[in-house]
Q: What sequence folds into this?
């Protein structure tokens, strides 16, 4: 199964709620029943931050999840950070392409993903108490 990757020139599709994801990814997420509306995600607490992204404890349809999104500060109307934002979006879409093809009982699964123009890609994974593997292994 070849994983489609967003390439320059790929179009985004949007529905009435202004969510959008790259077309090949949208089809896969819809087929897996994993296309979510970002506005349905309630971000609760920041768990960690990187230079480009924020990982939050969140709630989606009554379920506690982990939500990863591009740092909100990268969406300011500043031409100097536009390239960083675009790179971050491409990287997260690539990560999402990989996550959407993985299924294993010992790996926390992808619950869903969506793309809101004002926030970029957001994806949800299962939440496991006790922190991440890196912290656990120390």
A:
């Amino acid at each position: 199964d070849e994983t489609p990757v967003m390439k320059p020139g790929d179009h985004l599709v949007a529905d009435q709620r202004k969510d959008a994801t790259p077309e090949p990814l949208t089809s896969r997420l819809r087929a897996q029943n994993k296309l979510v509306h970002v506005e349905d995600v309630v971000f609760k607490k920041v768990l960690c931050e990187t230079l480009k992204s924020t990982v939050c404890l969140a709630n989606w349809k009554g379920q506690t999840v982990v939500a990863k999104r591009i740092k909100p500060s990268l969406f300011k109307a500043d031409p100097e950070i536009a390239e960083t934002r675009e790179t971050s979006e491409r990287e997260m879409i690539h990560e999402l392409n990989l996550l959407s093809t993985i299924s294993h009982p010992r790996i926390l699964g992808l619950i869903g993903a969506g793309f809101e123009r004002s926030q970029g890609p957001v994806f949800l994974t299962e939440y496991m108490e006790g922190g991440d593997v890196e912290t656990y292994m120390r």
In short: Helices lie at 23-31, 79-99, 133-137. The CA atoms of residues 43 and 58 lie 4 Å apart.
